[in-house]
Amino acid sequence: MRILVTGARGFIGSHLVHALTGRHEIYATAREPGAPAEGVTWIRHDLRAPLESAALPNSLDAVVHLAQSRRYREFPDGAADVFSLNVRATFELLEYARRAGASRFVFTSTGGVYGHGDESFVEEDNVDPINFYLASKYAAETVIAPYVAELQVVVLRLFFVYGPGQGQMLIPSLARRVLAGETVTIEGNPGIRINPIYVDDAVRTLERALEYESSLLCNVAGDETLTLIDLVSMLGEIAGREPRVVHTPAARAGDIVGDTTRMRRELGVTPSVSLRDGLARLVATL
Asked: What does the DSSP 8-state code read for residue 173?
């Protein structure tokens, strides 16, 4: 299969390219090319700018759009950057995929589009994005939706993917603070409940999405649900440090937990890495 992967040097993208190498012909876009690898063609492309179709292969089988804005926390100053990558580039890649004869388009959204709730979110639930970044992800989903008439489209709503090599996302940030003996601030007590998924298991869902024979909207999350204070306590146990925690009033009520029934049934993925094992692998690299 000839596959274009955007954001190929990012956290999830680099793991996916590694998993696909040797089995598929990969075209990997990034602002700076990665290390040479057999079967991987690196394409220098900043998707904040208009898509340069001439730099991409004339034909291919699938597109996996993983590229993310580094300015997702910077509203409103970073809003144009976020919109360009999440919405405009998504549309341009859809059109490119259609013209290049691709049959599949895979897009990574986020479980954050649901907002907060008291029960595990299922894919049919209403959405309530609470910031510009989340709104842009859902806007991309709405742009993608009509293309099910042209392509087999799989939208994956990711819930707190984590693992070694990750930047300043929630779980590695908490782990670094615990290891450094710094105070961890948690909104509410015991904090929201989440069900994170280890990066290797998340990548398996992407691999299965490339094989899926229809269009699909699917949550991608882990088996184990815990509060933030429980997460910090587990990190402390693994690191051999007593976490220092302070609580502040919660800005909003509810949790961010994804139901994984569809992930298991349609994509055949059951998480294989336990939360404790995954956190231990993360902590060992910090």
From this structure: H
pTM, rounded to two decimals: 0.94
* pLDDT one-digit tens code per residue, 194-228: 999 999 999 999 999 999 999 999 999 999 999 99
Are the CB atoms for 121 and 219 separated by under 8 Å? yes
Q: Specify if 237 maps to a domain.
A: no
Which structural domain range is residue 53 located in?
Answer: 2-161+198-221+257-271
In a domain, 132, yes or no: yes
pLDDT tens track for 9-56 = 999 999 999 999 989 999 999 988 888 888 899 999 999 999 988 899
User: How many Å apart are CA 25 and CA 40, to the nearest integer?
Assistant: 6
In a domain, 50, yes or no: yes
Q: Are 219 and 159 in contact (CB under 8 A)?
A: yes
Q: How far from 112 is each of 39, 103, 116, 157, 279, CA to CA, in Å?
A: 34, 28, 8, 8, 21
Token pair for 201: 């298991």
Six-digit token pair at 165? Answer: 């090599």
